[in-house]
Amino acid sequence: ANINAKLFLAASIGVVLSILAALNVIKFCSIKNNAATAADIEKLSNHEENKFEVVPIVEGAVGPESFAFDTLGGGPYTSVSDGCIVKWDQDKHHWINFAVTSP
Length: 103
Fold this sequence. Notes:
InterPro entries: 6-blade_b-propeller_TolB-like. One of its GO terms (cellular component) is endomembrane system. GO terms for molecular function: hydrolase activity. This protein is an alpha+beta fold. It folds into two domains: 1-30; 36-103, no CATH class. Helices cover 36% and strands 18% of the residues. The protein has a four-stranded antiparallel β-sheet, with no helix packed on it.
């Protein structure tokens, strides 16, 4: 009976620690809706060291979901939740529509 009590206590502690760890990860990974305004983007992109281009995402879609490069070092390519795949055009310095996935 003493072994069962110790085993139950150890299992209970493990469950509690797992729940606490999961809650901490969820809280740590939660993203608040801090959408950048056009003015914020303009301010950031005007600095020489902060040149960037926003990934084009249509309203209702989310992303980018992932980034990948091809075997020749082209890209990056990124997917958006609406099925669009866009590619970075190094020569033109902006994102271009590359493909659309089908269901």
